[in-house]
């Protein structure tokens, strides 16, 4: 099959755009769609101006890829996708308010608490090993805890 059979280089770019669009549907990641748009723009440009050399096509694809990614990133900042769980990908925020068990006594030098199946460095209210504490903040990888009133 030659390029002429599929509409020349413009047709090849449009087929590439279609393939990238299908890839985005099969493996969603909100990235291939921007490349698909860039490939479609270049494909249409080549159909309008078939004398555009390959180097120009590749350069146009690179430029349009950057443009579509920048516009897409801006779009998702201005119009975020609504979710029923806004802290879905923010593990630290999900920890705030939960309880933990003190693994290593917490004092002025810190300590460690058990959260789920992991042990995290902790600071905050003094607590003996085995006590339950509430997580009030996460600073980097350090959890700040307070005593639970019983």
UniProtKB/TrEMBL annotation:
InterPro entries: Membrane_assoc_protease, NA-bd_OB-fold, NfeD-like_C. It is found in: Membrane. Gene3D superfamilies: Nucleic acid-binding proteins. The chain crosses the membrane at residues 6-23, 30-52, 58-76. Keywords: Membrane, Transmembrane, Transmembrane helix. Residues 93-146 form the NfeD-like C-terminal domain. It comes from Sphingomonas insulae. It is a multi-pass membrane protein. The keyword Transmembrane helix applies. This is NfeD family protein.
């Amino acid at each position: 099959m030659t390029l002429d059979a599929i509409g020349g280089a413009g047709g090849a770019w449009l087929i590439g755009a279609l393939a990238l669009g299908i890839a985005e549907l099969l493996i969603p990641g909100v990235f291939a769609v921007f490349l698909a748009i860039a490939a479609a723009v270049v494909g249409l440009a080549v159909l309008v101006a078939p004398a555009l050399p390959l180097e120009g096509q590749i350069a146009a694809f690179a430029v349009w890829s950057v443009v579509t990614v920048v516009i897409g990133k801006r779009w998702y900042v201005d119009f975020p996708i609504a979710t029923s769980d806004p802290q879905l990908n923010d593990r630290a925020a999900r920890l705030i308010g939960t309880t933990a068990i003190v693994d290593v006594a917490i004092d002025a030098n810190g300590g460690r608490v058990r959260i789920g199946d992991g042990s995290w460095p902790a600071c905050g209210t003094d607590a003996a090993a085995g006590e339950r504490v509430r997580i009030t903040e996460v600073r980097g990888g350090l959890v700040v805890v307070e005593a639970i009133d019983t």
